[in-house]
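note to self — DONT lose this again. spent like an hour looking for the file last time. sequence + predicted structure for the chain T wanted, 163 res
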Amino acid sequence: MIIVLGICFVTVSMLGIAAHVVDSTNQGMLVAGALARPLLFCSVPGAVLLAVGFGWFGAVVGAIAVIGAAWTQSPLWKKRFGSKPTGEVPFTVLHANILLGKADADAVVALVDRHEPDVLTVVELTPSAHRGLLAAGLGGGSHIRSSAAHPGATAPASTPVIR
């Protein structure tokens, strides 16, 4: 049973590694890629279980899975924990899915006011939702300076976009 569980965990982690490195437009692969990070964590218990069940051979196979998982995440760790270059300008993006206009426009405006992003991106933006956001106060002050009132548009919050 230990060997079967170890094989399952390592297989799931290998699928996570594959989903992470494969560039695809296939919907299933995109979902798997989004879930890759949790899948990668399966390498650790898989490595332990294989080491217990198979000894050195299992430990080597498990170590390969753990190293592969760590390799896929190393750019994130380097960026998060590495030294920051001097003169770096912070740039924030707030992304909102307004659920085809069913989201609370006042809540979106409150989020923009609270976080003060440089760019606000909105998905599932309908013309009526765009009008609702403008009516809720998103168009005034330091908010939207330029926007495209069509679904899928990216609307800058504080920096104008020149087309």
